[in-house]
Amino acid sequence: AAAPFLQIASAIPMQYTIPQRAMECLYEKLEQGEKATMSVFITSGAELKGTAIFEGPVAPPTADTGKDLQDAIARYRAGSGSVVDESTVDFEQPDDWDDDDDWDDDDYADDEMDDEDVKDMTLEQKARRQRQIEEYKRRREAARKRRTARRKRARPTEGEPRQKTYMAKQPGWYRACVKGSWYQITAEIELRKASSLGDVDKETGHVISYGYRAMLNEEKEMDKFVAEEGGVKDEDLQVTREQLKKLNRLLNEIKEKQQDERHRLSIHAATNEHSHSRMVLSSLLETVLFMLVTGFQVYTIRKWFSGSPMLGR
């Protein structure tokens, strides 16, 4: 009965409280050419902003103990064979994303021609037309690949974590870090590697999540069920398996949507709180400025009536 709980618990990203200008890191040992996905979501803080850093190898693959790893990290210096990426993640400001398509199929659409028109063409014209058709197909295929790549890099919707996938250039220990801004923040951080989870999502290009891996493992367990003699037929059991898999996938989608909704609500709550704080601070500054101006005016008028030479009397 404990196994399902462990699977569910492993599917929940860990939350880390990161002090001002401090850094929290996760470490994983990667093989050469292995893919790893870094996932970050900032849940709370005076501003939902931080710096995501992925770098490595920070230690050789032979570092097996904590002391060896710490010693190697202390000596680490980024070199030519290293992967170093640093970017700002801000969950209160939308990401800039250019979704303009630089390819228009209509610009290279093949003119329809009758069979008689084709027959009347010379060999040179037919060859030129064939080259035009091949060029059109090649450019259309290139445009399709660009659109596919654009969808993979698409900005996540509100409530989804920021994810980025890297490939290890060399074997060794890599780390994914989140650095706090000028304020303390709380962040959910994940570092998923392909060798542990076993697959990369073909649609997103990211390593699949722990929750999705747990769902696939449950489906494998369902496939092990066999019909007993004199009991349910294999055909009926197969139908039951398929229905259970559909329910399992639906449940996984519901859990993902619930998590995204919780994230979205936390972003809205933090944004409203920050907007209110800025409004209160702005009102306070305006009040102080108004009082200073009023005090100066009262002082000036009193000096005026007292006959002070500073006003030309």
Would you give an account of this structure?
Residues 119-138 have a biased composition (Basic and acidic residues). Residues 139-154 have a biased composition (Basic residues). Its main location: membrane. With 313 residues, this protein is an alpha+beta fold. Helices cover 46% and strands 21% of the residues. It folds into two domains: 2-97 and 155-264, Jelly Rolls, CATH 2.60.120; 105-152, no CATH class. The chain is built from seven helices and eight strands, in the order αββββαβααβββααα. The strands form two sheets. Strands 1-8-3-6 form a four-stranded antiparallel sheet. It has a four-stranded antiparallel sheet with strand order 2-7-4-5. The termini are far apart.
Distance between the termini: 94 Å
- Count of discrete domains: 2
Q: For the record, what is the CATH homologous superfamily label of the largest domain?
A: GOLD domain
Binned, the helix content reads 40-55%
Radius of gyration: 31 Å
CATH architecture of the largest domain: Sandwich
- Overall, the morphology is extended
Task: Summarize the SSE layout with pairings.
Layout: H1 2-10, E1 14-18, E2 23-30, E3 35-45, E4 49-59, H2 66-74, E5 83-90, H3 115-120, H4 123-152, E6 162-167, E7 172-180, E8 185-193, H5 194-197, H6 210-223, H7 234-305
Antiparallel strand pairs: 1-8, 2-7, 3-6, 3-8, 4-5, 4-7
Keyphrases for this structure?
disordered N terminus; 46% helix; 313 residues; alpha+beta; coiled coil; 4-stranded antiparallel beta sheet; 2 domains; single chain; extended; Jelly Rolls
Q: What is the compact description of this entry?
A:
The protein is of the alpha+beta class and 313 residues long. It has helices at residues 2-10, 66-74, 115-120, 123-152, 194-197, 210-223, 234-305, and strands at residues 14-18, 23-30, 35-45, 49-59, 83-90, 162-167, 172-180, 185-193.
